[in-house]
Write a structure and sequence with these properties.
Shape: rod-shaped
Strand content: under 5%
Number of domains: 1
Order of helices and strands: HHHH
Distance between the termini: 172 Å
Length: about 180
């Protein structure tokens, strides 16, 4: 078998020396040139009406996709910034609300203390006025009692002492008796 392969290789080498490369390959120059021109025309047509519009469409799509991605990224950044602002506003509002609540509680406490103090003052004034009225009423009643007692003493004296000493003398005696009763 090895001998057989060597014989074939020697026959091919002898055939190569006698024939040209185109004959060995079996190429027909006229047919090859026509196929080359046809290939060039097909290539030109594909280049002009298929490849260029296809590349142009792909480039436009790529640009649209890039633009969409940039816009999406910008929207995402704006959304993040908006969230941050929202958090800041919420934090600020909470702080402000706490301050307002604290101030309201403080004012309520002050108002409560003030109202209690005013109520106490009004009650004290009313008590003082009631005490004064009571003292006045007491003095008035005491004077009325003294007057009635003086009249009763005067009437009793008239019944006990038939003769009158005189109005001035009666009044002095009555006054002296009342003063002794008071002490």
């Amino acid at each position: 078998m090895m001998i057989h392969l060597i014989n074939i290789a020697q026959a091919a080498e002898e055939a190569n020396h006698n024939q040209s490369l185109t004959q060995v390959l079996g190429i027909d120059w006229k047919l090859f040139l026509a196929q080359l021109i046809n290939f060039g025309l097909v290539l030109f047509v594909l280049w002009k009406w298929v490849y260029k519009p296809l590349v142009k469409t792909l480039n436009e799509r790529s640009k649209k996709i890039e633009k969409g991605l940039k816009e999406a990224k910008e929207i995402e950044e704006r959304l993040m910034a908006t969230k941050e602002q929202q958090e800041e506003l919420l934090t600020e509002a909470r702080t402000e609300a706490a301050v307002i609540l604290e101030r309201a509680e403080k004012e309520a406490g002050e108002n409560k203390s003030k109202m209690i103090q005013e109520a106490e003052e009004r009650i004290n004034k009313q008590l003082e006025m009631a005490r004064q009225r009571l003292a006045e009423d007491k003095d008035k009643i005491a004077k009325e009692i003294k007057t009635e007692v003086a009249e009763l003493v005067g009437q009793a004296l008239q019944k006990i002492i038939p003769e009158q000493l005189g109005e001035k003398a009666d009044k002095k005696i009555i006054k002296r008796i009342l003063d002794q009763n008071e002490s």
